[in-house]
Design goal:
Radius of gyration: 18 Å
Shape: globular
Number of helices: 9
Distance between the termini: 30 Å
Strand order of the largest sheet: 6-7-8-3-9-10
Number of strands: 10
Helix content: 25-40%
Largest sheet: 6 strands, mixed
Length: about 260
């Protein structure tokens, strides 16, 4: 589904990705964790060709990702992205925001795009907010509209870039609930997150990034509860609020953003 091979990326003289290799299979949920500046968000942006990369190779659905490729717009319709900030069109309702991609990018008929958008907004618990504008919605509701907008393109996978980091704590749960549902339904997901409880519950694999490298990866249980690397243990102690070793974290614990 997504193949990343020895990818390097620098901003000027500052290296951000230092030989990242990772493969995400269809239906797999992989969570990327690590401190700010470790390269997590940059990796997602390279996968979706929002950033170019300097060396290595990224493939989506067996096609190489390159910003100048004539296939890149088609690939972007296959892999959705949900950002920290919701990036909704402020002058369009929730329904219109979700319809935008199918109508203007995929050229779907208005009636079928509207029907699908209504179904998706119902799916994320916002069927009663179809005609609300973004400023009339809470942050959690806006992020759920953003997820529905991504789903409207019928992607094969979705990239989530810290989708709860801009939300007040009481709104985080409603967004994570939607993401749990998607995971149960078999959506391929690559998620940058600081929500350790969510990663432990949902992820098939967790990758810990540090200094542009994947320092440790494995099952959620192994990485979050019995990390092998000292840097992983140090990060988890910090994220979990200095509550001791990672394995002592309660089942549903979630961490604040580092």
């Amino acid at each position: 589904m997504i193949e990343i091979t020895d990818v390097h990326k620098s901003f000027g003289a500052t290296p951000v990705l230092n030989g990242i290799s990772l493969k995400i299979e269809q239906g797999e949920v992989v969570c990327l964790i690590g401190a700010s500046g470790s390269g997590k968000s940059t990796l997602l942006r390279c996968i979706n060709a929002l950033e170019s990369y300097d060396a290595g190779e990224i493939k989506l659905l067996d096609q190489r990702v390159e910003q100048r490729s004539r296939h890149i717009n088609h690939l972007r319709t296959q892999v959705g992205m949900v950002f920290q900030r919701f990036n909704l069109f402020p002058h369009r309702t929730a329904l219109e925001n979700v319809m935008e991609g199918p109508v203007h990018v995929k050229k779907e008929p208005l009636h079928s795009a509207k029907r699908d958008a209504e179904e998706l907004l119902n799916k994320v618990g916002l069927g009663h907010k179809l005609h609300y504008y973004p400023h009339q919605l809470s942050g959690g509701q806006q992020q759920r509209v953003a997820i529905a907008r991504s789903l409207a393109m019928k992607p094969k996978a979705i990239l989530f870039d810290e989708p709860t980091s801009a939300l007040d704590p009481e709104l985080v749960g409603e967004v994570l609930s939607v993401m749990r549902t998607l995971a149960k339904e078999g959506m391929t997901m690559l998620v940058v997150t600081h929500e350790m409880g969510f990663a432990r519950e949902v992820a098939d694999r967790v990758c810990f990034l540090h200094g542009g490298h994947i320092i440790e990866q494995g099952s959620a249980q192994q990485v979050l509860c019995a990390p092998r690397e000292a840097r992983t243990r140090e990060f988890l102690r910090h994220v979990l609020g200095n509550r001791g070793e990672a394995q002592s974290a309660p089942e549903g614990a979630t961490g604040a953003a580092a």
